[in-house]
Amino acid sequence: MNATHITSLSYWEQSTFIQADIIVIGAGIVGLSAALNLIRLNPNKKILVLERGVLPTGASTKNAGFSCFGSLSEIAADLDILSEEDVLSLISMRWNGLQLLRKTLGDEAMGYEEHGSFEVFTPTQESLYKRSIQLLDQYNQHLKQIIGVDQVFQPADQYIETFGFKGVKHLIRNTAEGQIDTGSTMNALLQLVRNAGVQVLTGVEITSYQTANNQVEVQTPELGKLSCHQLLFCTNGFAAQLLPDIDVQPGRAQVLITSEIPNLKLKGCFHMEEGYYYFRNVGNRVLFGGGRNLDKAGETTYSHEITPLIQNQLNTYLKEVILPDVEYSVEMRWAGTLGLGKTRLPIVQKIEPGVYCAVRMGGMGVAIGSLIGKQAAELLMNQ
Predict the structure, then answer these.
(1) Residue 5: is its pLDDT beyond 80?
(2) Residue 57: predicted pLDDT
(3) No. of H helices and E strands in the chain?
(4) pTM
(5) 140 pLDDT more than 50
(6) So what's the pLDDT on residue 3?
(7) What are the chain's domains?
(8) Which neighbouring-strand residues pair with 208?
(9) C-alpha to C-alpha distance for 173 and 279, rounded to whole angstroms
């Protein structure tokens, strides 16, 4: 199938770069994973991935690099709105998604490290800690069935002094979580997808689409009108811009990273306040993000600007709790866009004939994204 004739494009450009049987919108973990599985399931199909940013726009290149499946307080929060069956399904999908990503790319290419994680509780969070501890034995049993590891969650107050925290009363350790180099992971996935024969074009924005005569036409300012048999939206937090009826809202996630800190005491991933705050070591630096709960309405935005309200809170926690009495500077600040909704369950579905979506990663895209991309590819191939 050919794109509508555009005088600014040559025959070679049209025949080589923009012919497609399937167009995938979004070059994040989900979109690239979907494209990889689509080309593997049917090598004769032409798969085109379109990404409006020069780099993936949403969360895949802006996240904290947590390879996690949920702290106990996050599990407790999910249980408030989901059945236990759905919560266990989510945990299983996150775990299996991580293993799929590791198998696909390899730990070295991802910069994968498994130092475990810790959930941090301050003295004002005693009730949250007690609820989390009440779930510990039960979810250790569930996790043994899901991942085959005994005693994943463990009380770990003895590490508070080791990490040099102040104003922290309790820690709960998760022995099975890890962390990745986000940039290396996405670069490796992009190279793998391109080497498999998928065309990936960046800087191309889809402004509208329509279906007619068993085809889907998408409109772009850069390339004009393109046609395909099937269109897959993997735009996560941006999904509602072209799919207004779907339950996905953007959630801005603000992040900072420090200078290198000699003899940094902490290593691993750390969760606070039901996952609304999170930090980790990146070598000898500390990456710290979160604070969306301070202004949920204001953070329901597509903007990637940072705000004084949240950055000031990050600064305070960093100085008073995480790195007290430590010399450091903040070298970078940035923001990304999460895909959120009424629940954290992903949405993989047919929108209308020829049009599909795989969105709403619920802030767990690193963990769940590759599996959701695979499920989306299988959905398209079964139509």
Answers:
(1) no
(2) 74
(3) 11, 19
(4) 0.95
(5) yes
(6) 46
(7) 11-61+184-247+344-381 (3.50.50.60), 115-178+249-340 (3.30.9.10)
(8) 219
(9) 14
